[in-house]
Automatic annotation (TrEMBL), chain A:
Residues 85-101 have a biased composition (Basic residues). GO terms for molecular function: RNA binding. Residues 2-75 form the Sm domain. This is U6 snRNA-associated Sm-like protein LSm4. Gene3D superfamilies: 2.30.30.100. Keywords: mRNA processing, mRNA splicing, Nucleus, Ribonucleoprotein, RNA-binding, Spliceosome. Signal peptide: none annotated. GO terms for biological process: mRNA splicing, via spliceosome; nuclear-transcribed mRNA catabolic process. Belongs to the snRNP Sm proteins family. SMART domains: Sm. LSm subunits form a heteromer with a doughnut shape. Residues 80-126 are annotated as: Disordered. It comes from Chloropicon roscoffensis.
Automatic annotation (TrEMBL), chain B:
Plays role in pre-mRNA splicing as component of the U4/U6-U5 tri-snRNP complex that is involved in spliceosome assembly, and as component of the precatalytic spliceosome (spliceosome B complex). The heptameric LSM2-8 complex binds specifically to the 3'-terminal U-tract of U6 snRNA. It is found in: Nucleus. It comes from Chloropicon roscoffensis. The keyword Chaperone does not apply. Its main location: nucleus. PROSITE patterns: SM. The gene is LSM8. This is U6 snRNA-associated Sm-like protein LSm8.
Automatic annotation (TrEMBL), chain C:
The keyword Ribonucleoprotein applies. CDD domains: LSm2. Residues 2-76 form the Sm domain. Its main location: nucleus. This is Sm-like protein LSM2. InterPro entries: LSM_dom_sf, Sm, Sm_dom_euk/arc, U6_snRNA_Lsm2. It comes from Chloropicon roscoffensis.
Length: 126, 109, 94
């Protein structure tokens, strides 16, 4: 399960987000994007030390400020369902999507083979 | 006996990512020094993680380890320092209530 | 790419990785990727009594961005080769 697929499945569900600065935001996920930017409604914001609260009708959080998101366990089941539907409708056609080097099995190898060119070839036969 | 990730990905090119850990119990150290355990359900290129059944172990020097149930977590990769494959048998041997330790410090770049 | 290639030649060797949170982990280098994320097998935390957090962990993935130092096995490093590779890389970059 890709993290962003889970996030998408969490739309409409309540979640808790802790930011890198320690603040937490409790609210319903309205929308999200591939940078993990999120739009929440009916939010309760809590300060880092946990002793101050604010009620905010809605807010937008930039993805790169997030530390983690805590979502309801049921969202995982929904995400799995969504994934099945996605596969059945063949939106992932074209050789991607399953096995090998598709989604879910990221390869850091980049293009063009082993990347050994001009590198350090030590006393190993690898 | 469950095979460990290192045994599973033998042969051919060495798997550099986290795929060998998917479905396994893992132990995470975050950049803010927290220790989170759970089952790795998924990850992406920047090590964002989906962790199911996650729980935090809170360490203190004069009291035993306290465990907090956290549930389903999506963690951002840039907040993660170490992801370890947890040997659940070995973990069950640890006497948490009497284990005292200082928490791990923050990652300071 | 030079250090990526360099670390690939060290796979199978024992290294100690010191993290930016002062944790130090010794283990057998299993693999590296282009971001210098590291996978170690048979790990042991240096000063395990102080940091018992990874007692039940045998192998791990360390994010390259949190690594401060990597202690290398002296005899596994061919410094002459590394010199040559460094010059070659510098020449190619120019």
């Amino acid at each position: 399960m890709l993290p962003l697929s889970l996030l998408r499945a969490a739309q409409g569900h309540p979640m808790l987000i802790e930011l890198k600065n320690g603040e937490t935001y409790n609210g319903h996920l309205v929308n999200c994007d591939t940078w993990m930017n999120v739009h929440l409604r009916e939010v309760i914001c809590t300060s880092k030390d946990g002793d101050r609260f604010w009620r905010i009708p809605e807010c937008y959080i930039r993805g790169n400020t997030v530390k983690y998101m805590r979502v309801q366990e049921e969202v995982m089941d929904k995400a799995v369902e969504d994934q099945k539907k996605f596969r059945k409708h063949g939106q992932g056609r074209g050789g991607r999507g399953r096995g090998g080097r598709g989604r879910g099995s990221p390869s850091y190898r980049g293009r063009g083979g082993s990347g050994d060119r001009g590198g350090y070839r030590g006393n190993s036969n690898r | 006996m469950k095979r460990t990730a290192s045994e599973r990905d033998g042969g051919g090119r060495r798997e550099t990512g986290l795929s060998a850990y998917v479905g396994s119990a893992i132990s995470i150290i975050t950049n803010d020094g927290r220790h989170i355990l759970g089952t790795l359900k998924g990850f992406d290129q920047v090590q964002n993680l989906v962790i199911e059944g996650s729980r935090e172990r809170v360490y203190s020097p004069d009291e035993g380890v306290e465990t907090l149930e956290l549930g389903l977590y999506l963690m951002r990769g840039d907040c993660i320092a170490v992801v370890g494959e947890l040997d659940e048998e070995a973990d069950a041997e640890i006497d948490l209530p009497s284990l005292k330790a200082h928490p791990i410090g923050d990652v300071l770049h | 790419m030079l250090f990526y290639s360099f670390f690939k030649t060290l796979t199978g060797k024992e290294v100690t990785v010191e993290l930016k949170n002062d944790l130090a982990i010794t283990g057998i280098l299993h693999s590296v990727d282009q971001y210098l994320n590291i996978k170690l097998n048979e790990i042991k935390v240096v000063d395990e009594a102080k940091h018992p957090h990874l007692l039940a962990v045998k192998n791990c993935f360390i994010r390259g961005s949190v690594v401060r130092y990597i202690q290398l096995p002296q005899d596994a490093v061919d410094t002459d080769l590394l010199h040559d590779a460094t010059r070659r890389e510098a020449r190619n970059a120019a």
